[in-house]
Amino acid sequence: MLWRISMGWPAVYLHPRYFPALPLSTPPIIGPEALPALAERLRIAPPSRLFVLADANTARDCYPRLAAYLPAHELLTIAAGEEHKTLATCTEVWHWLTQHEADRHALLVCLGGGVVTDLGGFCAATYKRGLRCIGVPTTLLAQVDAAVGGKTGVDFQGFKNHIGVFQEPEAVFMEPAFLSTLPAGELRSGYAEVIKHALIADAAAFADLRGLAVAAVPDWTPIIRHSVAIKGQIVAQDPHESGPRKLLNFGHTVGHALESYLLAQPGRAVRHGEAVAAGLVCESWLAAQRGLLSAAELTQVREVVAAAFEPLGFAENEIGEIAAYARHDKKNQGDVIKCTLLQGIGHGIFDQAVTVADIEDSLRAYLTK
Question: Would residue 187 count as lying in a domain?
């Protein structure tokens, strides 16, 4: 089967096993061959020392499977959760590497979801000005999105990924079997990025999602390959997000605002994908208001999101505070909030100027539908 990718440029047809040129030493390896391939890579190019970074969940659920493929190494387990994606946790990692006298020829393997791959990649990129790093993403969100593309970083003063660098890992190894360790909510969280990729680049794939039941997917491997192929093509054209890579931020201007606001409210933190799913609806609504998306297409977006996600809970009187977070979005230019919108399903457009008032209106529309 061939996947069609169209982003305003000539259509490209990709076989699911094909990956376009990525700024990686090797393309991602996806499937049951991933961990054996990692072992072979370590045999061929052994590091001076090997270190594994995991969180409390992946240390328990995934590390035993990974460890069987690794030579002698050190393991650091950090606390799990977005609230620990901070410079304080980075200090813990840097201190651990320093204590164990890691040199620049050592290798850090990041075993986890987006928090671990983002934070671990950032720590590796900044430790002694650069440490070898490999990603072993264990969540659907990390496998379809976070672990590919070279964005690393941490949250700062309540703002998502406020501190970070672009730094590709040396390689990425994706074992879909790790997804069986995830709770249902975590699996749905990653599914939001699958929806996003289809909306910005592949209308036919989005049509296929309309009947998909997340809990009933028997094998995520083809879906992972498809999302990685879309993201890989975009990142290869624009590694540092000066142009087309901004397409990948669809749903994230509003989504990050919601996530940041709710994370700051005790007991109300939501998963990244849950916030992005709401952002997909809000930003699709903005596109419809500008005549870029038809009412029927907006309904389709709402239906696909609603089939997998419960509505986020926030009140009318919180909308102003939520929208204000968008002033700090990384795509902004000066006082102008730059957003990615849809120009029809399967075609994203970036650098669309929106106001805080626009975002407030989209959040009100989300509450009333």
Answer: no
